[in-house]
Design brief:
The protein is an alpha+beta fold and 259 residues long. Helices cover 38% and strands 14% of the residues.
Length: 259
């Protein structure tokens, strides 16, 4: 009589054997990235504050249209980017947008743009906004100023208007000195940006320097033409908290301490 073979025990259920190797690899990768993260000095709260403060400056969105110039590398605004790098890139992007506006409106040769320690400076040359010795704002640049205010409205930083003159004395019933003329011009631009434009009055300030902040020598007609100007300045974030009435920017100022 032939003995019946005992049936072999069935293999137990569970995941395929390759899953063990795969799980080990995933665990090692997870440990690797956790280690990289621990080596970085990333402050999540700080990074969130930076992104909130610059969410409009990094996008300049207008009705869903991205106004950042083509070629601007938004990938550089990474969690590992230095805050000063973010500031510089944001102001550079703003300058490019304003440059496009000046070209469209025909003022590209009459307004100089420069990045300085104090911020983005828009320098309106000689008689672009005012006739010599006058504080009456011309009609030609008004539409451009309105469109400029729409762009600046999206930038969460204070804006300073500075009036400058040459050293040729002025003495009439309205302006006893160049001081009064420079202040009057700055105030006129501020009023226009508020009343005809779209800027909040809390973000604006007006200063008049008269002849005492020249950028060229007053010994030549060309130098005097350069010195007669109005500067519109988007202040650097580190200077934001120093502006009168800018208490709402204190948090931004703490995010970007003066170095």
């Amino acid at each position: 009589m032939r003995r019946r073979k005992k049936p072999q025990a069935e293999e137990g259920g569970g995941a395929p054997r390759y899953m063990t190797t795969w799980a080990d690899m995933m665990s090692l990768l997870l440990c690797f990235f956790i280690l990289l993260y621990s080596f970085s000095s990333l402050d999540n709260q700080r990074f969130r504050e930076i992104m909130v403060a610059f969410k409009n400056m990094a996008g300049f969105l207008d009705g869903g249209t991205n106004l950042i110039p083509e070629g601007y590398n938004s990938e550089e605004l990474s969690p590992f980017a230095d805050s000063s790098q973010i500031q510089l890139q944001s102001l550079e992007a703003l300058a490019a947008v304003i440059q496009d506006l000046l070209e469209e409106e025909g003022f590209v040769d009459q307004v100089e743009l420069s990045l300085e320690d104090r911020g983005l400076v828009m320098r309106f040359k000689d008689v672009v906004l005012f006739d010599i010795g006058s504080d009456a704002l011309k009609e030609a640049p008004k539409e451009m100023l309105k469109k400029l205010s729409v762009i600046l409205e999206k930038v969460p930083l204070p804006i300073r208007i500075e009036g400058h003159t040459d050293n040729v004395p002025i003495n009439n019933a309205r302006f006893p000195s160049n001081w009064e003329l420079s202040v009057a011009r700055a105030v006129k631009v501020v009023r226009f940006l508020i009343e005809e434009g779209s800027l909040d009055s809390e973000r604006l300030s007006a200063l008049g320097y008269g002849e005492y902040r020249p950028i060229e020598s007053n010994a030549t007609p060309e130098g005097r033409n350069r010195n007669r100007r109005v500067d519109i300045i988007v202040l650097h974030p580190s200077l934001a908290g120093s502006e009168p009435g800018a208490e709402w920017l204190e948090e931004l100022s703490r995010t970007y301490p003066v170095k």
